[in-house]
Specification:
single chain, alpha/beta, TIM Barrel, 8-stranded parallel β-sheet, about 30% helix, binds flavin mononucleotide
């Protein structure tokens, strides 16, 4: 029987399907339920900021094509001090918990990273890439990216993951800057800037006018990002963007990802994780693959 567990950043994931940031709220109850009911291999929390934030008005998320969404939630979150109280309520036995954090300025990241580390998370993910918030400017600049990463690395012992912004000229340049500054892994990609217009109302649909595209439509863009990064960095890459089946996950692994994060596909319910795991196992049997790690980057 092939094994689908994966190890990276000194963490053990029972399978490569990790919840992406922002999709299922920030409460311990929801995240615990997801672990229990879905069999997910890892959890990433909604991005948490230094202060409570209401986010943008509705409509803030719409399905523009089946499986493809446009959102501008505006990083709604309860603030790090409230959020750390939820962390002990997240029951995630054997399933690594990654806290996603964002700041409006680079100096806010280290203190938040220390707070979530103290509260017991297994890793921290730096969101420097939300396409419709100030933080995207950090992830669009290699020097700023390096500076944030170096400051967080100097502040915590847990692994530091960096979520990359696809709305830049060169993701590879930003990925390399993050690696050089000490990042333990990269997550590629966040959503891609987009807009939908209601032709009867003659106005953009989202209250924020523009937002980030996620789901099926962005998968080829994300696969190429992972493929290019794999050629350019040595640290692990987690693929993210449009994964909804086990075959999608395998595509990302062959491009160079150690695991995948799944967001939009959860709109179809928790059941997708078991289906994905079955698809991955079947693929591995068909291709006589014992360990997923053996085919990471195999498409190169
Ligand atoms: C409603 C929604 C909220 C999101 N919130 C966050 C967030 O708080 N932090 C973050 O890093 N990414 C956030 N994302 C981006 C996802 O984590 C992921 O990078 C992106 O949606 C691509 O993956 P997918 O196609 O599987 O959804 C959000 C995406 C959606 C659809």
């Amino acid at each position: 029987m092939p094994s689908i567990d994966v190890d990276f950043c000194k963490l053990h994931f029972p399978n490569p399907v990790i919840l992406a940031s922002g999709i299922l709220g920030v409460t311990g109850a929801v995240l615990s339920r997801l672990v229990k009911e879905s069999g997910v291999g890892g959890l990433t929390t909604k991005s948490i900021g230094p202060e409570p934030r209401a986010g943008y008005a509705n409509p803030s998320i719409i399905e523009i094509e089946p499986g493809t969404c446009l959102n501008a939630v505006g990083l709604a979150n309860p603030g790090v001090d409230e959020f750390v109280k939820e962390i002990p309520e997240i029951h995630h036995d054997g399933v690594p918990l990654i806290a996603s954090i964002f700041g409006d300025a680079e100096d806010q990241y280290p203190a938040m990273a220390r707070k979530v580390e103290r509260a017991g998370v297994d890793a921290v993910e730096l969101n420097i890439s939300c396409p419709h918030a100030k933080v995207s400017s950090i992830g669009a600049d290699p020097d700023l990216t390096a500076s944030v990463v170096a400051k967080v690395k100097a502040s915590v012992k847990i692994p530091v993951l960096v979520k990359l912004n696809p709305n830049v000229t060169s993701m590879v340049e930003i990925g390399r800057a993050a690696e050089k500054a000490g990042a333990d892994a990269l997550v590629a990609i966040n959503t891609i800037r987009g807009m939908a217009i209601d032709i009867d109302v003659m106005k953009p649909v989202l209250a924020n006018k523009s937002g980030g595209v996620s789901g099926k439509a962005i998968k080829p863009i994300a696969v190429k990002a992972v493929y290019d990064l794999y050629d350019s960095v040595h640290i692990p890459i987690i693929g993210c963007g449009g994964v909804s089946t086990g075959h999608d996950a395998i595509e990302f692994v062959l491009a160079g990802a150690r695991a995948v994060q799944v967001g939009t596909a959860f709109l179809n319910g928790f059941g997708i994780v078991e289906e994905m795991k079955q698809d991955i196992l079947e693929y591995m049997k068909r291709h006589a693959v014992d360990k997923l790690a053996d085919i990471v980057g195999k498409a190169h």
